[in-house]
Structures are given as C-alpha cells and as structure tokens.
Amino acid sequence: MTTPQNSTAPYRDAGLPISDRVEDLLSRMTLAEKAGQMFHTAIVVGEDGELTDGEPGLGIDSTQHMVGELGLTHFNLLGAATDSRTLAQWHNRLQRLALSTRLGIPITLSTDPRHHFKDNPLASAMAGAFSQWPEPIGLAALRSPDLVTRFADIARQEYTATGLRVALHPQIDLATEPRWGRISATFGEDADLTSTLAAAYIRGFQGDALGPTSVATMTKHFPGGGPQKDGEDPHFAYGREQVYPGHNFRYHLGPFLAALAAGSTQIMPYYGVPLGTEYEEVAFGYNRGIITGLLREELGFDGIVCTDWSIVTDSTLMDEPMPARAWGVEHLSVLDRVAKVIDAGCDQFGGEAAPDLIVQLVEKGRISEERIDQSVRRLLREKFTLGLFDTPLVDPDHAAAVVGNPAFTAEGEAAQRRSFTLLTNPDTTLPLGPGLRVYAENVDAGLLARYATVVSSPADADVALMRLKAPFEPREGLFESFFHAGTLEYPADEKARQAALFRQVPTVVDIYLDRPAAVPEIAAQAAALLVSYGSSDQAFLDIAFGHAQPEGALPFDLPSSMAAVTASREDVPFDTADPLFRFGHGLRYPERPAGTPTTPQPHPAQVSDAPSTPTAVSPPAPQPSASASTDVAGTWHLTVHTPRGEQQGTLQLTATPDGFTGTLNNEAVTNGHINKGEISFKAQLTTPIKLKVKCSATIDGDMMTGTAKASMLPLSVPFTGTRTSR
Predict the structure, then answer these.
(1) Which residue among 20, 41, 94, 535 sits deepest, i.e. has the most Cβ atoms within 10 Å of its Cβ?
(2) Those residues with Cβ within 8 angstroms of residue 510's Cβ, 6 or more apart along the chain or in another chain
C-alpha cells in the first residue's frame, strides 16, 4: 500500500477522537485545499480499470488533473460497472493517487442507484455486475420495511466491496404529480409509506450509526421534489416550477423528517423553484430560507448539504448545451451564484469542479474562511467516520466474491417476482397452465419455449402475452429522452393495435410502470392485466405460469384519464377523480393445487414459425448467415445512425494473426477480434460526440452491419459499412 503523506501527523492516528483528527487536518490545509473538498463531480473508470485522461464529451477532466491539481476528493461514478474486480482495482488506483498528494486525503466515491433496471445517465445506472432488483417503486409495492432494509444491506455490501461509500439516494419525493418522469425511484405518493420505507432504507445502508462498514446516504430531494408543474422535470428550464395549488408543502416534507430521524448524514436539495410559498422563488440549492431556515435551524440538521448537479456553471454534454440549473438566479454571475449557494447553507457543489471560485470569494472578502471551515469540517468528519483515512483500499478478490453473488442475485430476482401487481383477472386466465400455444410480444422466445409452444401468429395461439412500457411523449433532446414525461395514455394507433389483438386472442398484458399509466381500455379488454416495476422476462414468465405469486399492491393511484390528471393538483396525493385503480389495489391468484411445480420445467415444445415482425416475440440471438465473412481487411465507409442523424466515418482495417488492427477516423482501433463469424473492436466514435465505444458487426461480402455501444452512457447505435477498397 502507498504510504500516505504526513503519516505521523495526529490526523493519521486512528486512536485519537475524530473531532481532534478533523481539527488537526483542517489546521494544515491551505485555502485551495479546503475549497477542493467542496466540489463533488463526475468520474469514469478507464480502460481495463486504469485512470482516465478524461471524457471531454461528458465534460470530465483527466483524473490526474482533478485529484492532483484541483485537489478534489469527492466523485460520483458514472456508467454501469460490468466487472467488480476491475472496479475495485480502479478504485485502489484512484486512492493511491489521492494518497500521493500533499495531505493524502482519501477519495469519497459516490454513486446514483445501480441495482435496478432504469438507465438514465443523469439519475441512475444499469445494474451491470451488481444484483438486480425492482426499482424502489417496486419495493414500495411490497410494503415491507424488512425487505427494504435487506435490499439496502445487500447494496451496502456490494458498494463497500468496490469502494463506493456514498449513496446518492434514497429519493423520497412524493409522486403526487403522476406525469413526473422520476417516479420510479420514489416510494410512491403516500407520505406515511414513504416515511416508513425511507427509514428502513437508510438503516440498511448506514446501520444504527455511520461507521467504517457503512454507506452514507445523501437523501433527496429536499424539501420534496414531487409537485412539478404539469409533471415536467427541473433538469430542464421548462420544468423549473414547483407548485403547491393545494397548499400541501408540509405533506412533502414528512418523509424527510423520518430520514433525519433515521440518521441520514447528507441531504440534496432539488433544482425546482417553489411558487406560492413563504420562501424565496429561487432554486432550492440557492434558497437560504429552505437550507438554513428550514433544514438547519428548524429541523436541526448539521450534516452535509450537497447541491444537485450543475447548478452553477453552463456545460455541453454530448454536443448538447446544458445550461446551469440556476433557476431564479440566472441573472447572477457564476461567482455570485457560488456565493449565494454558500450563504444558503450548502456545503458542497454537485457536478462542479471550480474550487478557484471559492478561493476568489474568500480573497475578495465576500465569504470568510471560517464559513468555509464550517463546511469542510463536516466533509472531513464524514471521511474519518467512514474509516477512509484508516482503510482507504479495498480487496479486489473480495469484491469479485461479493458483488452479484448467487445468493444476492437470487434475492433480487425473488423481489422482482414478488413485486408484480395483478390488477385484473376476471376469468382466472392467470396463472396459465401447461401445453398452451402462445403468441408473445417483447418476451424472449428462448425462455418462453420452456413453458409453452411459441407461435408467430395470434391466429395460431391459445393465449397471447404482451409486455409494454408505460406510455410517454418522446422528447427531442438526447438527455430529455431519458425522462419519460407528458401524456399517460397510449396514442390512438397503439390503442387500436392492442384492441385488435385483444379481439383475436385472450391476452395477458404486463405494463412496466416507471410512472402511472391511464389504461382503461386495456383494463377492460385484456384477459388479465399485470403491472411491474423493473423485472426480467424470466420473472414475468414465472408469474404468468404460476411458478410464483404476484404479491404487489399499487404504490400510487392509476388515473382513469388524462383529463382527470390535468384537473388534479400537483401537490395533493390521490387527487385524480375516479381513478381506475386505487393505491393499494392488488389481486392474488387462487390457491395453487397440490403438486403444482414451484420452479419452471422445460416444456417439450419447440419454437415454431420464428416471428418475422418487430412486434412478435424476440427470436433467439441471430447467427451469422452462410455468407458471413471474417475478411475484414480494407477501407470501409461507415454510416452511424445516431440520435442526431447520420454520421459518416472511415474505418481502415488490417488483418493480423490474432485478429485485426486499424483506425476509425484516424483514431486507433483496439481489441480487434474475430469469433464465429462476428468481429468486435473498441474505438472512438461520434455518437453524436466522440465517445469510447465497443463495436460488434458481421460482414457479408463488402457490407458490414453492426452496433456500437458507448461505455459511459446507455447509448447503443447501429451502423452500416461499405468496403471501398481492399
């Protein structure tokens, strides 16, 4: 292990009280070093677990610059982690870099949720190597504080094994506005249920008291981010307004009282501007009445307050302008914005990396160094409490053994199954029996063949299975597209398509509810209606065929129409008139007959008539055609189909004994492999900005067809290529 700087200084002595260690370290820090603690920005894992030279497209500097020159020691990890050992090794390299600095202050590494199904680069990451569970809204459907604590404890073990020590969650906003695009990460619209589950969640991550085996929770979004005007999200200027037509501000505050009582050590305020309240109409992170008056003075919170990400400086991400979410203070200079955030009572700037601004404010006499010390003292206290100074490194072997281990994975899968919520089953269609011929949409054919005969036409089926995502209005911007917003009804043509199937064959529908949906037509016409909150096809089929029981109950009302939604008040729970299904609704299957198997059994039927349309069941993974080739050499003209339109590129490849090498737009191609008729390689690709991607493709003569997947974002784009010369 690298010997830290100042190894004999009192702050290095684990036998001293934490308060003494904090004061000793604080007394040794320069103003610039103190300022560095007050920024908490994004970081990514480099190739093969190395430290990176940065990701310009994501606005991320090189790791060396951020740690060695800016003095930052708090980072949130972006992107899914597909290998826990590699993640742990990267974490140790990062810590060794920090230990080599003048004071050797260790890194605090945080993460958005990464145990679920939703992938939004501004709010979450896919599970990757970690055990996979339903979204928090699915945990709420099970109403079990014990299960929530168990989930959080498993997540804590997986986090700490890889060096993740701050959870940028739980998100305990109340989902009183059903159109809001962030409901899946909440516990629903009921304040009492959310309060109970929030406390259970925090206990699972932190324990009874924060310590060396804990993950600190940054509970968000104070004082409650649910009542967004028309359900629009304040990541974007058009969603900046947070409204209270029902004068229900205190209702949204309730879960935070429970979180503070449970010991949450950090709080994140949201971007929104409160309208029609006693508070200043500026974003919560700038709002002294909210942070100092309400949170610190009235509620007595003395922990860390970190702003939501990027509220001070403008940026560009993936070629899209991302203005600072400085809602209500856009007219202020960047320096004035920083001063107002600090004066509001915040300790740390999320998503920013500009410690020089704090230095300027102190040197100009606008903010005292004593005020900076107040925030830095809180930040250092937590590092010491978490044991980061005493045990900064993790064991990669332990990480490989713990993260995603079979027991944790099984518990996550069981929770997926249990959280399914049965809304209708009028003719006891569910559970399905054996020997059926099944037509399916958006269900894996290989899995389905274990339960039934798979057919490609509804006309040949005894029953149909249809998995759907909750309706939403697609938005044009790349990052906007990750926030499902707008209408809760399917478009007319989709309703007609569904109705035609329902008339042709009894159909079991499952809707993934990342927010409520208004689906009276489906409820009336489908043979049975299930809803889920993040689940695999395997979990769905286990439920559909009776190998597991749906145990969920709705964590929010399901509205009967959009007219009812638009007439409701954004801050008032259960406010849509005549809801289709009420909060708490959930049916159960009849008693299972004795002898019914409890685990799926292979069915002798084989898949017949492979589906030929995108709406049919997904076929097994395609195999290379008889003419597929591994003749890669030559110059290829590529067309990449990005969210911004087509991008052109030139790929030059040279065969080698082990595969191939080459360039893409004059940037090196690496890891060129050929396997069973398919080629794969890593490169820099414009998607729509230059990002590291992994490409896989097949070659048929002089034609190439493939897919490029970005390593840091949930972005997968198709490309085609034509060989222009050999």
Answers:
(1) 535
(2) 420, 465, 466, 467, 468, 530, 531, 532, 540, 544
| Distance between first and last Cα of the chain | 51
- Around 350, how many Cα atoms within 13 Å sit in the side-chain half-sphere? 31
Task: Please state, in angstroms and as integers, the Cα–Cα distance from residue 194 to each residue in 244, 259, 331, following that order.
Answer: 19, 10, 37
Other beta carbons less than 10 A from residue 85's beta carbon? 18
Rounded CA-CA distance 221/168 in Å is 10
Beta strands in 12-67 (DSSP E): 39-43
3-class DSSP state of 268 = strand
Taking residues 148-152, report their average pLDDT: 98
pLDDT reported for residue 628? 42
398-421: burial string, b at 16+ Cβ within 10 Å, e else = bbbebbbbeebbebbbebbbbbbb
Q: What are the beta bridge partners of residue 660?
A: 655, 672
Gyration radius (Cα) of the chain, Å:
27
- Give the burial string for 111-143 (b: 16+ CB within 10 Å, else e): bbbbbbbbbbbbbbbbbbbbbbbbbbbbbbbbb
Task: For 500-644, list the strands marked E by DSSP.
Answer: 507-512, 528-532, 628-629, 634-642
CB atoms within 10 A of CB 1: 10
Contact between 103 and 5 under an 8 Å Cβ cutoff? The reply is: yes
CA distances from 709 to 114, 693, 695, 720 (A): 18, 5, 6, 14
Q: pLDDT tens for residues 193-241?
A: 999 999 999 999 999 999 999 999 999 999 999 999 999 999 999 999 9
**Alpha carbons 468 and 310: distance in angstroms, whole number:** 34
Q: Where are the beta strands (DSSP E) in 386-436?
A: 421-424
With beta carbons less than 8 A apart as the criterion, state whether 558 and 518 touch: yes
Tokens (6 digits) for 70: 């800016």
The arithmetic mean of pLDDT across residues 655-664, rounded, is: 88
Distance CA 107, CA 539 (A): 38
Distance CA(504)–CA(612), nearest Å, equals 19
Residues 45 and 374: their CA atoms lie apart, in Å, by 32
Cα distance between residue 128 and residue 85, in whole Å? 13
Phi, psi (deg, nearest 5) at residue 390: -95, -35
What pLDDT score does 687 carry? 47
Task: Retrieve residue 569's tokens.
Answer: 């008040």
- Global pTM value: 0.84
Among 223, 228, 171, which Cα is nearest to 569's? 228
Torsion sign across C-alpha atoms 270, 347, 335, 281: positive
Q: How many residues does the chain have?
A: 726
Interatomic CA distance for residues 611 and 170, integer angstroms: 42
- In angstroms, rounded to a whole number, what is the distance separating the alpha carbons of residues 134 and 419? 7
> 593 — alpha (psi -120 to 50), left (phi > 0) or beta?
beta
DSSP annotation of 426 = T
Helix (H, G, I), strand (E, B) or coil at 31: helix
Q: Count the helix, strand and coil residues of the chain and give each as a percent rounded to the nearest 5.
A: 30, 20, 45
The reply to whether 308 belongs to the active site is yes
For the four alpha carbons of 427, 430, 435 and 437, in that order, the dihedral sign comes to: positive
Residues 574, 65: Cα–Cα separation, whole Å: 50
pLDDT band at 6 (very low <50, low <70, confident <90, very high): confident
Q: How much is the pLDDT for 595?
A: 42
Q: Is the Cβ–Cβ distance between 499 and 521 less than 8 Å?
A: yes
Q: Which are the contacts of 401, defined by CB distance < 8 A and separation ≥ 6?
A: none
**Strand (E) or helix (H) holding 349:** strand 349-350
For the record, the structure tokens of 83 come out as 């290998």
Of 83, 173, 233, 308, which one is the catalytic site residue? Answer: 308
